[in-house]
Batch of 2 targets.
Target 1
Amino acid sequence: MATSTEAAAPSEPSAPSEPPTAPAWRQLLGYVRPHRWTLLGGALLALLTGATGLALPLVARALIDDLSHSRSITGPLVAMSALVIANAAIGAIGAYVLRRTAESVVLGARRTLSSYLLRLRIDAVDRSEPGDLMARITSDTTLLRAVTTDSLVGLGTGGLTLVATLVLMGVVDPVLLAVTVGVILVAGTVIGVIVPRINRASKKAQDAVGVMGASLERILGALRTVKASGAEHREEQVVHRAATESWRQSVRAAKWEALAGNTAGLSMQIAFITVLAVGGARVATDAIDIGTLVAFLLYVFYLMSPIQQVVAAVAQYQTGAAALTRIQEALTLPAEPAADPAPLPLPGAEPAELAFADVRFRYAEDLPYVHHGVTFTVPARGMTAFVGPSGAGKTTVFSLIERFYDPEAGRITVDGRDVAHWDIPQLRAAIGYVEQDAPVLSGTLRDNLLLGNPDADDAELHRVLDTTRLEDLVAHLPKGLDTLVGHRGTKLSGGERQRVAIARALLRRPRLLLLDEATSQLDAVNESALRDTVADVARTTTVLVVAHRLSTVTMADRIIVMDAGRVRAVGTHRELVAADPLYAELAATQFLATADIG
Ligand code: ADP
C-alpha cells in the first residue's frame, strides 16, 4: 500500500530553490514551481469556467432581444443550457485539479521540512522546542494548501475574470462602467488598510499553535513525572493558555477577514443600486436600451464572485505568508550537509585510533567552557575508561567524537584524520554509540535493534542477542522480536533498554564503540555477562567507556581521569590508585561502584 501511495504522489524534487531569506511570495513560488504546469492547467479550467459564466449575460441579452421582437427563443435557450452545464462540469474538474496541485505543494513543503529537520545540528535542536518544530511541519504546511488554491489561483483567475468582466462592461456601457469602478476603488482602499492586520494576527495564531505543540510534547514526554508530581492542573493551564491565544488571534484574523469580505460585498450592493439608478435614468433618456441595462446589471452581479475571490486571495495570502515565515524560520536553523541516501557500506573490522589535542569546547557562547584543553590519545584496539566526577565533561567527549558539536579550538582525530574533514555519515558509520539513558524508539524490538544496520542478517542478530543476553527476553515476549516496545521503550525495564542499546550498537559492527555506562541499570548477573562481552569486543574494536563501576575500570587497558574539563591523569587502575589522589579517593569511596548519574 505504501508503494501505491508513493506511486500516486508527485515524485518531482520539491526542495524550494529560493534562499530561506527571500520574501514570502518568492518562497511560495519556490514551492509551487515544480507544479506550475498542473497549476496553470487548473487555473485555465477555472478561467474557462468564468468565461462560460461571462457569456451568459450576452446570451441573456439576445434572449430578451428575441422576446421583445417576438422571435423564437429556442437558440438562446439551448445556448444558455449548454453554457450552464459546461460551467458546472469544467468548474468541477478545475476545482479538483487545483486542489490536487495544492495538496502536492503541501506534500513538497512537508518533505522538504521533515528532511531538513532530520539533518538539524544537535546544537540547533538544543535551542528549539521539538513540539514547535512538529507544529511547523504538520500545521503550518497545511496552510499552504489554501494559499495555493485561494491565493495564487484566486488572484490569477479572479483577477483575469475581473478584468475581462470590466472590459465587457466597458463594451456594454462605458458610463455605467465608470460608476462601478468608482465604487470598487473606495472599497479597495478600505481593504488595503485591513490586510496587514490579518497577517499579524495569523502569525501570532500559528506561533501559539507552536507553543501548544511544545507544551504538549513536554507533558507527553514525561507524563509519569507530571502525574507523580501532581502537576496536571498547572500543565493543563499552560496548554490551555496557548490554545486560547491561538483562538484569540485566529478570531482577530477572522474579524478582519470578515470585514474585508463584507466591505467587498457591500461595495457590490452599492454598485448594483447605483448602476440601477444611473442606468434607469439612461434608459429613460434613451441613451441605452433596457436589454443593455439588464446585461450590465448581470455583469455587476457576476463581478461579485471575482472581487470576492481577489479579496479572499489577498486575505488568505496573509495567513499563508505567516505560515511560510514560520516554515522558513525552521529552514534557517543550522543543519548538517545533506547526506547521500544510499546506505553506507559498513566499514571493515579495522579498529579506529582516536586523539584529542588541546580541545576547547562550550555548548553555547553564553555558557562556560566544558573542555578547557582536553588532550589524550587512544590506540587502536583495547578498552579505555573515562572516569571523573559528574560534570567533568566525559559524555561531552563522546558527543564531540560523533560530531554532534564541533570544538571551538583544538583537534579531534580519528585514524589520524581531523573529524572536521570526515564525511559525517562515514564517520558515524564507524562508530557504535550507547548513550547513558539508552534511548529506545517506539516500534518493535526488531526495528530498534536494526536501526543502525537494517541489513544485518538473522544469524548476526541472534549472535548479538546472545552476547547481550537478550535471548531470554525475546523468548518471553508475546511476539518475540516483533513485540512493540511502547513509546520510548516504556514496556522494557531500564536494564533491558540498555542491553537493547548495546545490541543495536554492536550490530553496526563498529570500529569504535562508545559506551556511556549506566549506573544502576543492570543486575549483577547481566553486568558480569556484559563485561565479558565488552572485553570480547575490545579485542577487535576500540572501546571507550564512561565508567561508573569499579568492575569496569579494573578491566580497562587504560583509564583517563577527567576533572573540570581537563585530563588530570592517565594510567591503569593500579598505577592511578598510587599516583592520583582524586582517582584514589573515587576508588576508595566506592564512588565508581555506586550510583553517579552525571
Ligand atoms: P559528565 O559526563 O562528565 O558527567 P558532561 O559531559 O555530561 O559531564 O557535562 C559537562 C557539562 O556540560 C555539565 O556541566 C553539563 O551541565 C554541561 N552540558 C552537558 N550537555 C549540555 C548541553 N546539551 N547544553 C548545555 N550544557 C550541557
Target 2
Amino acid sequence: MSTAAPEPKANMGKSVPRYDAAAKVTGKAQYAADVPLNNPAFAYLVTSSIAKGRIDRFDLSAARKVRGIIDIVTHENAEKLKEAKLFSNGGYASTTIQPLKTADIAQDGQIIAVVVAETFEAAREAAHAVKVSYTATDPAATFDSPGTTSARAKGQLAQFKEDPKVGDFARAFDTAEVKITASYETPTQHHNPMELFATSCVWNGDSLTIYEPSQYVYGLKNGVAEQLGIDADKVRVVNAYVGGAFGSKGSMTPRTAIIASIARRLGRPVKLVAGRDQGFTIATYRAETRHQIQIGADHDGKLVALRHEGEEISSRPDAYAVGGTKTTTRLYACPNVESLVSIVRADRNTPGFMRSPPEVPYMFALESAMDELAVKLNLDPIELRRRNDTMTEPIGGKPYTSRSLMACFEEGAKAFGWAERKPEPKSMSEGDWLIGHGCAATCYPTQMAPAAARVRLQRDGRTRVEIAGHEIGNGAYTVIAQAASEKLGVPFEKVSVLIGDSDLPPAPVAGGSNSTASTCSAVMMVCDQIRQRLFKASMPDESLVDKAKETVGLGQTPVTQATKSDRPLNLEQAFDALGASVVEEYGEWKPEGAPLDSFRAMHQGHVRMVGGGEMKDKIAYAFGAEFVEVRINRWTHEIRVPRLVGAFAAGRIMNPRTAHSQLMGGLIWGMSSALLEATELDERYARYVNDNLADYLVPVNADVLNVEVVLLSEEDNHINPAGVKGLGELANVGTNAAICNAIFHATGQRIRKLPVRLEDLKI
Ligand code: MOS
C-alpha cells in the first residue's frame, strides 16, 4: 500500500475544487429569481412588433379582463424616469433607447408595456392580449440597408480614442513583394445565458433592494438610483450567483428602473423574468462586423505593411463599437500600419459586450489573413508568425510585459501533432472525410481596475472576505478564498467569501477578464494589512517589524516574495500579543496607472480600467495558440471537429482547475462561433428570427469530441501584485480563424464569412 501524497496547502496556484461546487450541484445556490419575496406581483413585458415608427393606440380591454390583472403600464401612464447615459460613454446603461417615455419606437422588441398581475401566468396571458396599433416606417436593418449612416468610430465613443497607425502604409503596401487583400464578415450573436434576464424589486420605505443577475452590482445600484432620482445609498443590488452573462449583464438595461418604479407605485415587490425571445431585444448582443485586411510582406514573410479596416453595426442613438484594431495592429511586428473603425447606425437595439468583444471578430479577420499569407508564401503558418513575433508592439513601441505567443505555438503544436500535417491543401483524407489542420493565435489584453475589500480574521483562523465581486461561473469565490488563504496562511476551508452584493466594498464590473486580477489584488493587499498589524503586535522589536514588512510585501510587491516569507504567522501568539480575538481591515487597491479619481469613481459604479495596450510605457496581453482538426464529409459537407487543442500563457494561474474550465469553454465557444452561432436577421423588419435556443445553434455534447488545454507557466511581475493576466476571454478568440484555416487545408476553399454553412462549401 502506498502512502497518500501530502495534502497540498489550498492556496494560490492549486487546483482547489470550486468553493461553490456543492451549493451549485445540490441546488442550494440561490440565483436572483430564486429569492423568495413577500407577496410579489409578477410583471410580463410587452415588446414592439415593429422596429421603427410609433404607437398610435393601445387596446387594453381584453388584457384588463384577465383574472388577476393588477396594472398595465405604458408610455401613457408610466413614471417618466431620468435619462441614462451609455456605459461605454461613461454612464451605466446598455442603451439610451429608454422605453415607456413616448410613443416612438426605435427598435424591434422595444419594451412598450409592462403588465402586472397576481401570477406569472396571468401577467403573461394579459400581455398577449394587449393590442397595439402602430404607424410603421421601413427600418434600416444592417450593412447596405438603405437609410443606415456610417461614420468613423473615433470621436463618437469615449472608449475608442484612436485608430492606431504608424509609418506609411500606402507606400509600403504599394511596393511590397507579396500582398494579400481580403474581406471578412462575422455575424450577429446573442449571449443566451441560461439564466434569463430577471429582476425583482423590493421597497422597504424609501430603500430599494434589487435581486438581479448582474456583472456589476455597483454600476446597477448607481444607475438605477440615478434613473429613479434617489440617493445611491438607498439602493442595494444582490445576487450571489450569476447563471451566465458573457457581457450581457455588465451594464444596466432599461428593465430594472422600470420594474423598480412599478414596485414603488404598487407598494409591493415586483418580479420580472423576461422570456428568452425578449432577451434578444431588451439586452445587448454582439453586432455583425465587416473587415478588410491588407497585408504586404517580403518574400521571407516579414510584414512590411498592414491595414485593418472594420465596420460595426450599432443602434441609431448609440455609438457602441468594440474597435478590435487596438489589438490587431499591435500583435505582429510591422513598420507600416494603418487602421480605421467605422460605426454603421441602423434601426436596431444597441449592441454591447459579448465575450472577448473586440478580439472575436477582429482576430478572425487578422488570423485568417495571416493564414492566407502563409499559403501564398508557401510557408508554415507557425513559421510565419515566428518571423513576425515581437516583444515590442509596433504602434507606440511599448514593450510587452511578457509574451509567450511562440512558446504557446510550440507547446500547442507538440500536443496537437502538427508535425504530422501535410502542408498542401486537400492532401489529407480518410474514406469520405476530407481532413484539415489549422491553427491561429489568440490574445487578450490584461486588464485591471480599482477594487476594495474588507477582511476579518479570527484567532482560530476563520476568515471572512467581503468584496462586491461577481460569480459569473468564472470561479470568483474560489480564487478570492485562495488569495486570502495564501496570504493569511489559513486553510482554504476556513475562508468564507461574500460577494455579489452592493453593500460590500466595491469591485469593478466582472468584464474584460479583469476580475481575478483586480479582486485578488485588493484582497491580498488587505490581508497584508492584517499581517502587518499582527506582526507589529507579536514583534515589538522595531528591527524585526521592518524585516517583516520587507518579506510580507505591500501593495505592488509581487506576492511570490510574501509566499516565500520565512516568517510564517503564528496566529495564536500574534492574537495573544495583540490582546484581541479578531482583526478586521478594509482597503482600497488600484492598479498602477489608474487615474486620480479612481476610488471615487469606484464607489460611484464607474470603472477605471487599466491595461492592454493603453498603459503608459508597456503593453500587457495574455497569449495562446489554437489548433484544430476538421473532418468534412465530401458528399454531405458535414463539418466535424474531432480535436481542439489550445496552449495558453496568462501569467500566474490562480487555479488550474477553474482556469482549465474557462479555457475549455472558450475553445468550445470559439468552435461554435465558426460553425454554429448566428442570430438571423429578417432585414425587411429588422427583426431577429431565431430568438430561442432551439433555432439559435450552440454546440451540444455530440459536437464536442476532444478538447485539450495546455497551460504554460508564465511569471509576470509587471502587471499586478497577483501576477494574474486574466484568461476568461482568451480561448474563444482565434478559434474561428483556426477552423476556417483548417477548412482551407481540407478543401482548398477559403471561407471568409461566419458562420460556415454547409451550402457554402463547394467541394
Ligand atoms: Mo465580458 S464581454 O467582458 O463579460
